[in-house]
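Listing S7. Sequence submitted for prediction.
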Amino acid sequence: MAGGIPRAQSVHTGLACRSRQWEGRPPLPKRLWAIYHSPMTTHGNGRIISADSHVAVSHDQIKARLASRYHPAYDDAVAAFGARMAGGSGAANVAGAAMKAAEKNSAFTRAGYHDPKARLVDMDTDGVDVEVIYSEVSAFRYLPDMREGAGESVRAFNDVLQEFAAVDRERLVVSYQIPIHDIDVAVAEVRRVADLGAKSLQLPVFPSEYGLAEYADDRYDPLFALIEETGLPICCHIGLNTNLDDLTRRDPTPNKGVMVPMTALTTAEAFGMWVMGGVFERFPRLKVVFVEPGLTWVAWWVFTADDMMTRQGYDFPAISELPSHYFHRNVSLTFIEEPIALERLRDVIGVENILWSSDFPHPVTSWPNSRRIIDEQFANLPDAERDLITCGNATRIWNL
């Protein structure tokens, strides 16, 4: 067993990705046929799933689906959030976005960033079959501040995502955001979106950012029990981390280049809370996807977490197995381009735990050259492992 599922099952899932699923769709245009069947592409007819792409959601879209009596409270919450983000990690995001290199490579000006029909065209251009999509707006960060109408606003927010995906639910897999300030609201929203046909949920990475108990706390048990019942994955997207505000202030570099790598590395804290905190011991069928945490450093964490328990004598009373057991069974990670991790560390991280992504339309996106970049990154990997990382693992995790 490598990762959390039997090797035979994993290879079978990977092989299923070899043939592209175009049944019921119009014939491919000649230019796309050339992309998929180019002799320079080792898997020209293989399905590719991006486990991390993005969509622009506007506050006007949300308010259009929200009763007008809640608009003042909504606007006040957004304004308060904006004021909080004027410094610290929020300012770092602005500084990074202002970099010329970021502007050159990003695809923010593409209509597909906000229009679903145009998005499908962009995906075809890139040779990507399915995208798991995350909103650029984080409802977690401001909706709990509403003096009234927070629950209604959660539904309005997710309805915007639902409408985006409606154009092609097989290819546009949106991650519905589930704020955790009110567990009853969270449970109700999971039930609602599951009934709508949801394939993906998004929760905050760090409850501590909102002054809430960690996920190991039993306040989340009703939510996790329901999510486990639905079989939907929980996605935790790494990005803004206000717990790093002090480091951001101390960072002497103009684009906050000291702090930015730490954002991914602090995911180790989240790993620990889920794993050593016993969440996966109590809810063994949960699937948690960490989006954009990086890969290479994770191999060190997996090794060290086990070493702390076996050699160093650390006591983790909430778990009965080694930390790596829960990591490989319950956790997955997305990446964009990390050839060192793929070639040298994938067995430690777990081949079944790694998910390729294009990160469209962000500055590091592989669009519109994803197939060429995949060929280059996976040149030295076995075909079955490539199929798992670019398609099979995502097919299993998101029940596609």
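Caption to Listing S7: primary sequence and predicted structure tokens for the chain studied. The mean pLDDT is 89. The first helix runs from residue 7 to 16.
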